[in-house]
Amino acid sequence: MPESVRRHYELYPYPSYPLFASVRRCDTYANNLSALWSFFNGELPPPGLSRILIAGCGSFAPYPFALANPGTQITALDLSRKSLQRARLHCLLHGVAGVDFVAGDLRDPGLAPGPYAMIDAYGVLHHLEEPLAGLRALEARLSEGGILRVMVYSRYTRREEDSIRRALRLLKVRDPEEVRRMVAKSARDSRLRAFFESSGEVASRSGLADALLHPQVMSYRIDEFLELVTASGLVPLRFAHPGALPEPEREIARVRGMEKEKRSPGNFVLYLGRGVKGPCRDEEAVFRLNPCLSQALAPWRPGALYVPGRLGQKNATLDGAERRFLRRFLNPVPADGLSSAELARAGRYADQLFLMRCRG
């Protein structure tokens, strides 16, 4: 990454969540390595391969990943030592351990060498001078069957931010407080004021700096993003931005249609794979509960439970009957131990990552 990007995050560690901001473990279910591996490979991760890399981890992501994966070796890699210090402190304050914090550039093959079963690069590639070199550096660290999640900026989602950012660069505005003074002086119907009133991102100093003052930003149309993916040698497995359809081909067609109207589903979130085996059929499966949900489903916890969807679609609220059904899978349940209706029900929960579906 350019030195300017490192300096930016030393000044503005991102994101700026309060240190005492906590996350329910059940909300981290889509970060669980066993759940993701079984979703895309139809089996549990091989022994000795329980390793996760968070590339460009920022100041927060190590906490929910460690919460989701106790006992898993997690490496948190970032250019910014200040971001790593805050991430380490957040983990310490919330009593989570098992994270190795590493400062440096993800393109350096000597740092955080693989293989990793899971790599997360959320909001990273679009800040690289050479995104393909960065993506290939991550691909080289990925194990066979490994999964890489990326998020990149979408051109039409970022259109207003990009326009304002370019204007601020031309004006040589580099300080968040100076931007806020400009907003205060702007007309009530100005685009700048309208953006500030509609965006939660700019409420914090680091959020404003990340959105409007970042020195290196690229946004993508869907086909530009797919060219990058194809050149890396990785295979698209599943889009996970809001509203995403389960099949990559259908989602690509949907997004292309939106882009013809200069619209977007949001920034692109995509799971990529290297030599994955593919999911297991319901009829051949042994089902297990995602371990991140076990405590939230305890019988002594009253009331309904809502856990947001993480694969593009909304989840239904779990009432008492659904919670009781899911508790059956605290121990492995083979498909032949379920009725046809129960098997279909279990399959739907496996599609949401609430259950793990593995070959028997």
Could you characterize what this model shows?
The protein is α/β, with parallel strands linked by helices and 360 residues long. The chain folds into three domains: 3-155 and 217-274, Rossmann fold; 159-212, no CATH class; 282-359. The chain is 36% helix and 16% strand. The protein has helices at 3-11, 33-41, 62-68, 81-93, 131-141, 159-170, 176-185, 191-198, 205-212, 222-232, 248-260, 320-327, 340-351, and strands spanning 51-55, 73-78, 99-103, 116-122, 142-152, 235-239, 268-274, 285-289, 333-334, 355-359. The strands form two sheets. The protein has a seven-stranded mixed β-sheet with strand order 3-2-1-4-5-7-6, sandwiched between helices. Strands 9-8-10 form a three-stranded antiparallel β-sheet. Helix 5 links the parallel strand 4 and strand 5. Helix 5 crosses helix 10. It is globular and about 65 Å long. The chain starts with a helix and ends with a strand.
Q: Taking all residues together, what is the mean pLDDT?
A: 96
The DSSP helix count reads 13
Strand content: 15-25%
- CATH-defined topology of the largest domain: Rossmann fold
The poorly predicted ranges are: none
Structural class by helix and strand composition? alpha/beta
What order do the strands of the largest sheet run in, or round the barrel if closed? 3-2-1-4-5-7-6
Q: So what's the CATH class of the largest domain? A: Alpha Beta
Global shape: globular
Q: Mind summarizing the main beta sheet?
A: 7 strands, mixed
